[in-house]
Protein: Carbohydrate ABC transporter permease
Amino acid sequence: MRFPPHAPARRRLEGVAVHLLALLLALVILTPVVWLLISSVSSTADLTSLPLRWWPGTPDLSRYAALLSVAPGSPGAAFLLALRNSLLVALGATGLSLLVAIPAAYSFSRLPGRRAGLLYAVLATYMLPPVALVLPLYAVLARAGLLNSVYGLALVYCTILAPFATWLLKTNFDAVPLEIEESAQIDGLSRWGVLGRVTLPLALPGLSTAAVWAVLLAWDEFFYALLFTSTTSAKTLPVAIADFAAGRAVDYGLICAAGVVAALPPILIGFLLQRGLLSGLSAGAVKG
Structure:
């Protein structure tokens, strides 16, 4: 950190304070992650000893090997099946939600009319506590034969993701100049053509932001997954990891290793799309 020689003392103090607060924030965020990584390679004796050993004597990577095992009945088989289910549910729910949210957001943005109240009604469904929707959703899934199914769970997640994606995309569509769309219509494009060939490419940061947030929300969701799935064939990662703590002899290192592996796909997606994520959030922050 460098300041010009002529910088006033107050400016120097403000700069130091900002950097100290940023360092404190980084410590608060990263400390649990670092402890998760250390615990995942610590032996059971290190994790249960008193006083607690903050650093393992010998790193133990056997938990990661166990999670990649496909032997029937092993923790790895359940974990890998749950990983597949989480991918199916998160990507399926995100795709379905964007298919609904894109035309809905475009309609709210370009053809508001009396639909403004409907947008707030859509947002109100997002604000409802999940427990309020459990009984209706359970009844619908039971009637459709989709209980204990990854497809049923993906449909349930659409009720969470579609309102959020609609709101986020609308704010980004609002930022696209109307003159560009009108020029495209004069050149002969239909309304759907304008949406697909003009508006969506210009709102691509917002679209990637909505996709990333939808995947993360579906990936981490636990409440509905716990209630609507009961067998290994349908459980997602949060429920499968919680099951590791259900036995009499709990392997805390295995739970931590599963947490580390489960966090890798969202981190990778966020890293690859970080530029679009920041642009989309900035656009959404300045538009009402």
